[in-house]
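Lab channel / #folding
Pinned by the channel admin:
"Please post every new chain as: sequence first, then the structure tokens as a reply. Keep commentary short and put observations after the output so the thread stays searchable."

First post following the new format, from NK:
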Amino acid sequence: PSVFPIINQGTVYEAGMTLRDYFANSAMQGLISMFVLKGNSSNTDWADVISENAFVIADAMLKQREL
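Reply from TO:
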């Protein structure tokens, strides 16, 4: 499913982002905060680590919704 679709008179003009992307975005915000607060921001791989884990969390959230 998608979130934030653009609909005009019942016609979908833009589907919006996927629910998986929305969940990953939300998870990523928390992961970045934790990562930086723990002093790990000097690690050059931090973006890859956070991105991968955000989608792992998003997939778990979708699984809980039984989609």
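NK: The chain has a mean pLDDT of 84.
TO: also worth noting, The CA atoms of residues 29 and 57 lie 12 Å apart.
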